[in-house]
Each structure stands twice: as C-alpha cells, then as structure tokens.
Amino acid sequence: MNNKGGAGKTSTITNLAMSFAQAGRRVLLIDGDQQANSTEVLANGKKYHAQYGHTICDLYTNPRFSISDAIIPAVSGDEAVGNLFIIPSDPSFERVMENCLTRHHREKILFRHLQPVMDRFSYIFIDCSPGLNLSTTNAAYTSDHVLIPVDGGSFSLTGLEVVLDYLDEIRETRFTRFSVFRNEYNGAKKKMNAYLHEQLANNARTRDHYLNTRIRADENISQAQVACVPLWYYNRGALVLNDYRALMRELETLFSAGEA
Ligand SMILES: Nc1ncnc2c1ncn2[C@@H]1O[C@H](COP(=O)(O)OP(=O)(O)OP(=O)(O)O)[C@@H](O)[C@H]1O
Ligand SMILES: [Mg+2]
C-alpha cells in the first residue's frame, strides 16, 4: 500500500511474489487494483481479464461466489510460473466497488471469501490501488502485515502517513504490523536519500518498521512490464532481482520472529 501513485506497489509485489514462489513457497497474488497492472504482468498482458474468466469483480458482486474459480496460475507468455497463482483484476472493478458502497460489512468481503483457501497458500499478497477505495479498505481489514514502498521523492512520505492513519482507523487500534522500505533507490541522489532516511529512521511511527533492504532503481523493471512478463523471465541477470530476494529474506525473518 501507498496512497501515492507510482511508489512501486505493483513492481514490488509482483517480483516479491515471484521470489517467494521460486523459493518453494506457494503464493497467491490478488490484484486489488482496478488498473490491473499485476494482472497485465502475470497474465500475459490480459488486462481486461473479465473477458477471459473470473476476476476479483466476482468476489465483490456475488457473496456466494467460489473463490477457487477465480484463482489461476500466473504465466509468463504461455508458460506457467510454478507455485504462483493470481486472482486477476479488471478495469470494471472500479464500478463494481461503487455498487458495493451501501452493502453491510463491505470491508470484510475479501476476508470472508479468503477463509476457505487460506490454508492452501504459504503467502497471500494483495496489490493495492493508490486510492483508499473499498478494495484497499478490504486489504487493510484482512492483512496480517502491510508493506509500504517509499520511492525517491517526498510525496510518498505523505502517502505513507495517510496509509498508517487509515490502517489505524480500519483496524480500530494503533496498527503496528507494517514495514516501510525504500524503492527506486539511487545512491547518487545523496541529499534526497539522506532526507528520506532521516524521515523514516527518526520518525517515532516508522523507525521500528524501516527495513534494511532497499530496492534499487533498475530500468529492467519497467522494460519487463512493457513486455508483460515477470522480470525474472525478461532478464534473469537483472541486479534488482537480488534486492527482491533480500526483501523476501528480511520479511521471512520478521515473520518467523512473530511479526506476522
Ligand atoms: N525500483 C525501480 N526502479 C525503476 N523503476 C521502477 C522501480 N519501481 C517501480 N518503477 C517504475 O515506476 C513506475 C511505477 O511503479 P509501479 O507501477 O510499481 O507503482 P505503483 O505504486 O504500483 O503505481 P500505482 O499507484 O499506479 O498502482 C513503473 O513505470 C515502474 O516500472
Ligand atoms: Mg500499481
């Protein structure tokens, strides 16, 4: 999550999910964003996925929908990506969410659908849209842990604050199960890096949640997205893949220490 658009939510979660899958974890990635960017990358460019099969829209329109029907293997081209499954999104999800706005318990829609399949996956990731819409609310209600990317500008700090306040509101407590990390890190931008580090490391709210792993700036990320394939399939020599693996290891250490 980050309330700022373009902070790196989709790039991080698609590549992190790949890292976990390659490490032998069974992973489900739910595309909770009507922009359907994760779907584009992990479903061979099929952004308008409602044309091809079930999507997250079905979860939000039909309380009796069987979630298993919307879970499909992630692919690179025609090749299935082992251990990685997705629930695709579709641009029509925006309208679907609007139609849910008068439903009772609408913040629990995803949580309720997920119950029967929770045990089938080691990890379930949700890619959020930039806005605090109903899908983000459901992610905030459901998640054990929230990952917040901060890119190279100061606006994502504002987006981070907004998300933290929102999490507190939805969870009705001071929500502490989150991690903040730097994305699109460029070591040459010394002043900006020092500023962001100071903000994240000294802020009482974030200092204990600030990850060591930084995801470097790497052109391969956007190139793979243009090609609509996961980065590992696009260029398995891309250095940033090491960062996603490091992020995976840091998170697994956190989780095994009891920080869900
Ligand atoms: N580490 C990185 N290095 C280089 N480019 C990056 C990096 N992370 C993200 N980008 C690029 O920045 C742009 C925004 O990234 P991304 O789509 O992941 O952000 P987002 O937070 O999901 O955006 P939105 O809020 O629209 O969902 C994309 O073009 C992506 O390729
Ligand atoms: Mg995105």
Automatic annotation (TrEMBL):
Pfam families according to UniProt: AAA_31
Q: Which domain of life is it from?
A: Bacteria
Q: Where is the signal peptide?
A: none
Which InterPro entries would you find in this protein's record?
AAA_dom, DNA_Partitioning_ATPase, P-loop_NTPase
Start and end residues of each AAA domain: 1-173
Q: What is this protein called?
A: Chromosome partitioning protein ParA
Q: Which organism is it from?
A: Erwinia typographi
User: What does the record give as the organism's lineage?
Assistant: Bacteria, Pseudomonadati, Pseudomonadota, Gammaproteobacteria, Enterobacterales
